[in-house]
User: Which sequence fits this backbone?
């Protein structure tokens, strides 16, 4: 496929995230939406209003037009079925995170992709964010010395309307699988593999099947330890979305929600404020200095679509492939298992 050739993308599932992908597609010159697959009345109304072709299944869409790749942004419990159907049609896929609801489903997606010689890109779009890339650089260049620990919070009170769909009350749509999984992915991307987890959880706020709040402890292969508190029922200014402004539907508060501690300094994330002593031999009796890094603000969803185009054109391998995303999912599932069993889980 030539670089300047128009790429035709289909979207399966045109909910909140599907619309976000559509916005990104509409900003790129050599990409166009060739159709949407969705069975809901809301989707049909949206497509009719915007004069977009809508289909009941991917086979029907593919028979009617040229398709180069598929974006899967359906509920998590549908990712496996949707991905397999696309891969068996020989199509490259961009699957919204998490790759699937279970590890065995992720393994099957990986296997079917290999059989059909197709690529799987999983939508952990934060890997494209300059603040993540800059943090990875800061850590690997040891600008805060040896990293020994980290502590994060993600707490936003989601509205009642958000939980109207029954699937959003299930464990597969809880804050660990829906939200914390993003943090798990960029933490793995920056610091390496997570080898052990322990956690506590509660669901006594909304009384849904899913958790309301989780406190998770993480142990990394390189030795650092960390913790993360996450809740979709708590009020706070601390989250990735409100810290970076990535979610256009939420206020941009610019508050840091993660602190990374090293032997020679500390880093507030995602707005990259570095704290350190003036002299190498200084200690807790000395004054600390702070420095703010500058970084470009980009839309990671646009960067992700551009990367998907390069994947389709066989120019690059997926930055987050099925195998990589499977490891992130395994950490998230292990956190839920630890909370259920009240035990440490080795990964």
Assistant:
């Amino acid at each position: 496929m030539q670089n300047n050739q128009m790429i035709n993308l289909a979207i399966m599932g045109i909910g909140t995230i599907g619309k976000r992908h559509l916005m990104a597609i509409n900003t790129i010159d050599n990409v166009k939406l060739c159709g949407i697959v969705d069975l809901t009345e809301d989707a049909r109304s949206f497509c009719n209003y915007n004069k977009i072709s809508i289909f009941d299944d991917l086979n029907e869409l593919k028979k009617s037009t040229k398709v180069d790749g598929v974006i899967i942004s359906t509920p998590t419990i549908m990712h496996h079925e949707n991905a397999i159907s696309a891969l068996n049609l020989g199509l490259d896929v961009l699957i919204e995170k998490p790759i699937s609801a279970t590890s065995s489903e992720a393994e099957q997606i990986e296997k079917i992709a290999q059989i059909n010689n197709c690529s799987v890109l999983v939508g952990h779009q934060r890997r494209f964010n300059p603040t993540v890339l800059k943090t990875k650089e800061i850590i690997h260049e040891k600008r805060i010395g040896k990293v020994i620990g980290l502590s994060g919070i993600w707490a936003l009170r989601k509205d009642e309307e958000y939980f109207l769909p029954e699937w959003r009350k299930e464990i597969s749509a809880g804050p660990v699988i829906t939200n914390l999984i993003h943090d798990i992915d960029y933490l793995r991307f920056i610091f390496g593999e997570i080898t052990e987890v322990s956690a506590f959880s509660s669901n006594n706020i909304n009384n849904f099947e899913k958790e309301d709040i989780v406190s998770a402890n993480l142990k990394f292969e390189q030795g650092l330890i960390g913790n993360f508190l996450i809740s979709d029922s708590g009020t706070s200014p601390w989250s990735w979305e409100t810290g970076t402004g990535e979610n256009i539907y939420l206020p941009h508060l610019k508050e840091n929600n993660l602190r990374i501690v090293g032997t020679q300094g500390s880093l507030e994330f995602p707005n990259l404020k570095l704290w350190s002593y003036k002299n190498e031999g200084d200690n807790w009796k000395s004054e600390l200095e702070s420095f703010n890094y500058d970084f470009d603000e980009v839309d990671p969803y646009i960067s992700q679509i551009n990367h998907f185009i390069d994947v389709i054109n066989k120019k690059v391998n997926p930055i987050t492939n099925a195998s990589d995303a499977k490891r992130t999912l395994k950490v998230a599932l292990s956190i839920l298992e630890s909370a259920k069993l009240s035990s440490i889980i080795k990964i």
About this structure: The radius of gyration is 21 Å. The mean pLDDT is 96. The first helix runs from residue 16 to 25. The chain is about 35% helix and 25% strand.
